Amino acid sequence: MTPDEFRKAGHRLIDWIADYRATVASRPVMARAEPGEIKAKLPASPPQAAESFEAIMDDVDRIVMPGITTWQHPRFFGYFPSNGLLASVLGDYLSTGLGVIGLTWQSSPALTEVEEVTTDWMRQMLGLSDAWSGVINDTASTGSLVALLCARERATDYSLARGGLQAEPQPLVVYTSAHSHSSVEKAALLAGFGKAHVRIVPHDTEFAMRPESLDAMIADDLAAGRRPCAVVATTGTTTCTALDPLEAIARVAKNRNLWMHVDAAMAGSAMILPECRWMWAGVEEADSLIVNPHKWLGAVFDCSVYFVRDAEHLVRVMSTTPSYLKTAADGRVKNYRDWGLPLGRRFRALKLWFLIREQGVAGLQARIRRDLANAKWLEEQVAATPGWRVVAPVRLQTVCVRHEPAGLTGEALDRYTLEWAARLNQSGEAYVTPALLDGRWMVRVSIGAELTERMHLEQLWSLMQQDAVR
Amino acid sequence: MTPDEFRKAGHRLIDWIADYRATVASRPVMARAEPGEIKAKLPASPPQAAESFEAIMDDVDRIVMPGITTWQHPRFFGYFPSNGLLASVLGDYLSTGLGVIGLTWQSSPALTEVEEVTTDWMRQMLGLSDAWSGVINDTASTGSLVALLCARERATDYSLARGGLQAEPQPLVVYTSAHSHSSVEKAALLAGFGKAHVRIVPHDTEFAMRPESLDAMIADDLAAGRRPCAVVATTGTTTCTALDPLEAIARVAKNRNLWMHVDAAMAGSAMILPECRWMWAGVEEADSLIVNPHKWLGAVFDCSVYFVRDAEHLVRVMSTTPSYLKTAADGRVKNYRDWGLPLGRRFRALKLWFLIREQGVAGLQARIRRDLANAKWLEEQVAATPGWRVVAPVRLQTVCVRHEPAGLTGEALDRYTLEWAARLNQSGEAYVTPALLDGRWMVRVSIGAELTERMHLEQLWSLMQQDAVR
Fold it and tell me: For a disulfide at B187, which of A458, B145, B210, B468, Cβ 3.0-4.6 Å?
């Protein structure tokens, strides 16, 4: 494809995306495809000869689109908001079109320096001190793994340079709550700690970690000859946006010499509002912190910012310097390859830079405030309606609800909950995510799509009441 | 930004990229920015109020572009070819514009199923048997880490579900050569093996791993009570595209019960040519394999395919199933989150699907053949010129050269080599990567940019002779 052919095809693609975005509200939210349906429509073997761009786009319309769940739909209340605001989309288009790769600073200086500046903008927007430095990862899964690897290496005085974790005399232990994200346990297992050394600290009635239980578990492990290594706390848990008490946890971590990692992947976006920052009071005492602008803030996926206090330690854990990556600029510049797992890096900062500039901090704040108010509104409706219950405190944009018809309990209630949620999702009118809370299924309504206004909440609430009829 | 504003701004961006791509040959190859220069031009704090798209694009032109190294330049011979062919760029634009995320199959069925089909197309193009299944990662760094984690867990019968690597009685050992990519050692260290348990197997005069040395080192480790765990072999090493003998290594791996991982990140693209497949004879005996379509093949970064034989084992190592990710389709579909590190996944298959369709297999093959012939041509010129030497066999598209003026040896020769390479790079006329080979600096000419024709090799060869004047 020549640049001129690209110009023509690109204009067509831009129009296609503009049309898609303009019509999201009229599409089914959850894709209706059956398992295997899309695969069956695609040729089993690659084409030998070139095909036209038109033929490819025809297949996009005919085959791909029926398998697309509409994440930008104003009645998308599943998982978490990930809007991909259009300014951010254009920032990513610039990155992709330039096709540069960050291997070293020299391999594209702007890739590194715009990332330095933009992550520092994020730091300021979040009200964090300048003790923090940021780097962009793909996801919080990756960031949590990086954090636990750094914790492991600090606790072992860089065992990786010697016999590794496998040569350590006493096992290291990681602490988190049952409400931390699934990627936290996954990271601990991949980092080699083992499930037997991942402690699930009990939580209180608001689903927040109990710092006194944390301290007691640490004492037990120390008494048994094990080495407490890290605690992962969450600001805004996945299931119900619970808030682990960071200040109290930080005191324990400091006393006990643990690495403290804070996962604020989703809720971190709300910390651009000064009135929300009480939720993560104590965050300054952490060693590492994750905020995902690709969630509620509106950057298009993937864009997860990892903030670190001791960047030198991070670099020592992650760095490699083969001869083919040495350049004359080393020592005077950041080489972000030494700040995370992958060597090659996209120019991800552009999508965040475009987003912040096109929206302005004030614009981003206004949208987050709207969503918080919408969540409060829904909470009030549910709480005021007989048979319905809000099953977790609404701190942010997630409302956890259950319809509890008289006489329905236990597994029968679970089946009922899953059934009405499935009916709602299959209708294509709205999309919610059921999840377990204290062993019982409930329905998460995760608010924050760019297009979601009060009207859409009203529609959702009406749909919920229709589908949950018994 | 509304869809209509996006339409307008998007057309402008498409034109901007088309103009950029049409003029790459007239730009400096290596960015001329000084360390800190770009950063200094950007505001230290984020804007409170929204800015116009025009203002952002003005800053792109004025501030960002001087810091962009032109990876698509026809005289880009640095690192590795990573062209980002424009059809692939459009595939990625579609992915970004749709803004869908793969968390579960249900969260966008097409994201999963197009990836299944497209990675299977890649498998067929590479001449691999249908015992392999593919999944797209960001980079080979990530894939190598996944491979070594899978090796670790197979050797320990899933220690992650028990006490982890740290509870294992005998240390596990990983084997590779000094010429494997830096990310292999990094992966071994992050996986917890420790540097003391990473063996560097000696190589022969063509920089390929010696299987008999591998076997002897394994015997030594067994005798010392250690457990040989994995061997990482490379088809087309980074420095000089050396070819580790996979068949012989596979025999050792099989006898000794080691996981065998093959890194063909760069050279794998050439395996779409039947005449090149002798280079990785024995690959079918490996447990895991990486080929990066984002290198020579032309997919825009990032797109690294990880092929695995025992997908069930991979899923067992990587899977997490919190309640909020359970869906009714589980068990009937692939959930790719359980095939790698991150939970959230972009619709990366689109950029590969667009590339293969728009080029056709025959088109991709023709370009790779052109590049192989260009490398041969340069090899012949260098070999035939007094004072110049080809310092490694030219198997693929990388030509490793040194100018050795009479009387210049040792560190003086190193200084001279680095100086003329720096002069060449600073001229902006071409870009090469110096690297160490057998302890001496030489210059890698990595051929394969989409626009690189014989003429550009002639120009490079002339520039090299001008800059290396003594």
Answer: B145
Tokens of B144: 């190598």
Nearest-neighbour CA in chain A from B338: distance (Å): 10
Q: In what order do the strands lie in the sheet with A440-446?
A: A76-77, A431-437, A440-446, A398-403, A388-390
Which residues of chain B are within 8 Å of residue A56 when distances are taken between CB atoms? 353-354, 357-358
Residue matched to tokens 């899933």: B158
Q: If we measure between CA atoms, which residue out of A331, A325, A289 comes closest to residue A310?
A: A289
CB-nearest partner of A361 from B46, B69, B97: B46
Structural contact between residues B280 and B262, judged by C-beta atoms closer than 8 angstroms: yes
pLDDT tens, position by position, for chain A (470 residues)? 999 999 999 999 999 999 999 999 999 999 989 999 999 999 999 999 999 999 999 999 999 999 999 999 999 999 999 989 999 999 999 999 999 999 999 999 999 999 999 999 999 999 999 999 999 999 999 999 999 999 999 999 999 999 999 989 999 999 999 999 999 999 999 999 999 999 999 999 999 999 999 999 999 999 999 999 999 999 999 999 999 999 999 999 999 999 999 999 999 999 999 999 999 999 999 999 999 999 999 999 999 999 999 999 999 999 987 787 888 888 889 999 999 999 999 999 999 999 999 999 999 999 999 999 999 999 999 999 999 999 999 999 999 999 999 999 999 999 999 999 999 999 999 999 999 999 999 999 999 999 999 999 999 999 999 987 76
As a whole number of angstroms, the distance between CA A242 and CA B344 comes to 21
Residue in B159, B41, B95, B102 with CA at minimum distance from that of residue B355: B95
- Evaluate whether A336 touches A345 at the Cβ level (below 8 Å): yes
* Nearest of B321, B295, B307, B309 to residue B398 by alpha carbon: B295
Residue type, A64: V
Is residue B389 within 8 Å of B443, Cβ to Cβ? no
The DSSP bridge partners found for residue A172 are A227
* CA–CA dist B268, B318 (Å, integer): 25
pTM of the model: 0.97
Buried b (16+ CB within 10 A) or exposed e, A392-425: bbbbbbbbbbbbbeeeeeeeebbebbeebbbebb
How many Cα atoms sit within 13 Å of B443 on the Cβ side?
32
Strands ordered across the beta sheet of B388-390 = B76-77, B431-437, B440-446, B398-403, B388-390
Strand partners, B233: B262
| Chain A contact set for B95 (CB, 8 A) | none
Among A413, A461, A463, which residue's Cα sits nearest to residue A441?
A413
B-chain residues within 8 Å CB-CB of A42? 113-114, 117
In A, minimum Cα distance to B45 occurs at A121
B87 with A11: CB under 8 angstroms? no
Question: Distance (Å, rounded) from C-alpha B216 to C-alpha A119?
Answer: 49
3-class secondary structure, B428: coil
Beta strands B288-291; B304-308: pairing state: antiparallel
Q: Strand, coil or helix: what is B66?
A: helix
Task: Please report where in the chains the tokens 């459009």 appear, as a residue.
Answer: B90
CA dist A463 and B14 (Å) reads 41
CA of B107 vs chain A CAs: smallest distance (Å): 6
CA distance B377 to chain A (A): 24
Using CB atoms, which residue from A51, A117, A320 is nearest to B186? A320
Task: Give phi and psi for B19, each to the nearest 5.
Answer: -65, -40
d(CA B311, CA B313): 5
* ipTM of predicted complex: 0.96
DSSP assigned state of B42: S
